[in-house]
Amino acid sequence: MPSLADVGQLLVNGVMAGTILAVPAIGLTAIYAVLRFPNFALASHATIGAFAGYVANARLGWPLLPSVAIAFIVAGGVGVITDETVLKRFRPAGYITTAIASIALTIALENVVRFVFGNELRGYELPIQRDWRIGAIRVGPQQVTNLAIAGVAMAALFGFLGFTRMGKAMRAVADNPMLAAIKGIDADTIGRIVNFVGMGLAGLGGMLIGLDTTIDPLTGFRSILSVFAAAVVGGLGSIPGAVIGALTVGIGEELCLLFLSPDYRSAVGFVAILVVLTLRPRGILGQRAY
Amino acid sequence: MAVSAGIYALMALGVNVVWGFAGMINLGLVGFFAVGAYTSALLTLKAGWAIAGGMAAATIVAAIVGAIVALVTVRLRGDYLAIVTLGFAETIRIVASNAIWLTNGSDGLSGIPGPGRGLLSPEAFNLVYLAIVGVIVAIAYFVNERLRVSPFGRVLRAIRDDEQVASVAGKHVTLFKVKAFAISAAALGLAGALYAHYTSYIAPDIFVPLFTLYIKLALLAGGLGNNRGAIVGAFAVVFLLESTRFVIPLVPGITPVQGAAIREFLIAALLIVMLRYKPRGLVPETSTRLPVPPVAEGYQPTA
How far is B40 from chain A (nearest CA, A)? Predict the structure, then answer.
């Protein structure tokens, strides 16, 4: 019988995992809101971000924060380039073709990473720290740092969307592309920005996931099911929804450990998708972007 | 090699029903392939079923699973189907790697019986198996061709081209889509069973998303919605896969991992190029036209 402290520990872990998961989930849902297709290439961009951060941190010996920034910038930059050269051309052909192209793209990029870095598991250079104990609940300092980074990234994003011209223009395109075009908002520019921000968040998320464990070329793909689950549960296209969805999936994945072996954790995301699509097809918050 | 081409052809035929005819997306077709492979392997290995029985069960189980997956998503926009099918394939792989009591986990199942294996020489076994696969592909091709020109196939293509019009015409769009998905999943499941009994060994590592891309590429190479093309495309893809397996290691100075990475990259890049420039495939679907009855005598078009 699990004790109350066990449940508390799992809840804390779930909130931590959910907050980190929210970062790539926001990226996914933002891209969906503006460009209207599920971009599976998110997986490889998360991997690219994780490896960019790894090169900065472990090879060049940079401290954590600049490495995290590099993860964001490199993944965002690659996201803009791949979208311009590959995915953009597919969009007139419809979302099915674009989705298939994006999964082919993700496998292509993943193999570029594999070609350069090989299949070995790699870890970041981080100081080993003792866990903090609050009552019966243990928290790792690294987890708290990750939580803070994820929180700051999300706050910055909400600030960007709420208070800057670009952010408002992005929401306008998500809300009604035609009306936005009439007002003179250039859809191409917005597409580039949303790709940079979205894929950047994916890269940041990939690095945050990797900080807890190790990274390899499949880092992004392994977490894609949870990321999509978070976005769908919250309502695909809704940014606050992605946060709520990520917390739901994160906590759900941890609580399932009470009665399932940890290996099934990522299957929880799939079950969550099925339940939400059956009961509330538009997700918890619906599809309004913001 | 001809056997795997046959198995790919069967899968391409199956996928043609949903992607080519009905215009639905299935990014998790490797999941249905895995369901079929494991069903048949487990029934023959652990329950002592005959191989034919295992294959039949694999077909049926995959069809049921396909119908369930389709039912959940079919009322939603197609991109949800993309997410759910991809998630389905990943979930199957996770279950297959972790339900050790059933599937032996990542070690996989070995010693899956094949028809006449052990009694025949390896060459004879290959020939016998090739004949079996050939017959099944021929049947699947025939059924698919009938399906294409049947009222059922016409409705599917109508749904693909304009769902609303099809539904205004009184067609139960949901039901047709679920049926198409189940038929397609059945073919994938049978292909999985054929694969399991041929190689005698299956493991979760085989059922990776890359496999899904192979079949998409086969279908595009042959022509979407075109059954003969599906078979030709499958042979082309298997030829490509096998030839790159020999050519790439000849490149000096690369490790096996890098070689594998180049190969997978090429497949993915090729798929992107094909999708971009030949979205309906190299041999596009020919529209089946019904003969227009001659205008009746004395008919005056009203101006």
Answer: 23
Instruction: List the single residue in A with minimal CA-CA distance to B265.
Output: A108
B32 to A225, B67, B76, B117: CA distances (angstroms):
18, 11, 21, 26
Tell me the shortest Cα–Cα distance from B223 to chain A, in angstroms: 15
Question: Of the candidates A119, A261, A270, which has its C-beta nearest B87's C-beta?
Answer: A270
What amino acid occupies position B48?
Answer: G
Alpha-helix residue ranges (DSSP H) falling in B169-284: 173-199, 209-222, 227-247, 256-277
Confidence of residue A228 (pLDDT cuts 50, 70, 90): very high
- Which CATH number, 3.90.550, 2.60.40, 1.10.10, 1.10.3470, labels domain A4-116+136-279? 1.10.3470
B162, HSE (Cβ side, Cα atoms, 13 Å): 5
d(CA B230, CA B18): 13
C-alpha distances in Å from residue A176, one per residue of A7, A29, A171, A183, B80 = 44, 16, 9, 11, 21
Q: Predicted ipTM?
A: 0.84
pLDDT value at residue B303? 47
Q: How many domains does chain B have?
A: 1
In a domain, B61, yes or no: yes
Residue B128 lies in domain: 2-207
C-alpha separations of A172 from A33, A227, B291 in Å: 10, 25, 50
Q: Does A264 touch chain B (CB under 8 A)?
A: yes
> What's B221-240 look like in SS3?
HHCCCCHHHHHHHHHHHHHH
* pTM of model > 0.90: no
- Residue B36, pLDDT score: 94
Domain boundaries defined on chain A = 4-116+136-279
Residue B116 C-alpha, separation from nearest chain A C-alpha, in angstroms: 38
Instruction: Give me chain A's average pLDDT, please.
Output: 88
In the numeric block, which tokens belong to residue B263?
């190969």
Closest in B98, B209, B257 to A261, CB measured = B98
pLDDT (0 to 100) of residue B24: 84
Whether B248 is in a domain gets the answer no
Q: Indicate if the alpha-carbon torsion angle B17, B20, B21, B27 is positive or negative.
A: positive
Classify residue B256: in a domain, yes or no: no
If one compares A177 and A39, the residue with the highest pLDDT of the two is A39
**pLDDT band, very low/low/confident/very high, at B298 (cuts 50, 70, 90):** low
- pLDDT, one tens digit per residue, over A67-94 is 999 999 999 999 999 999 999 888 888 8
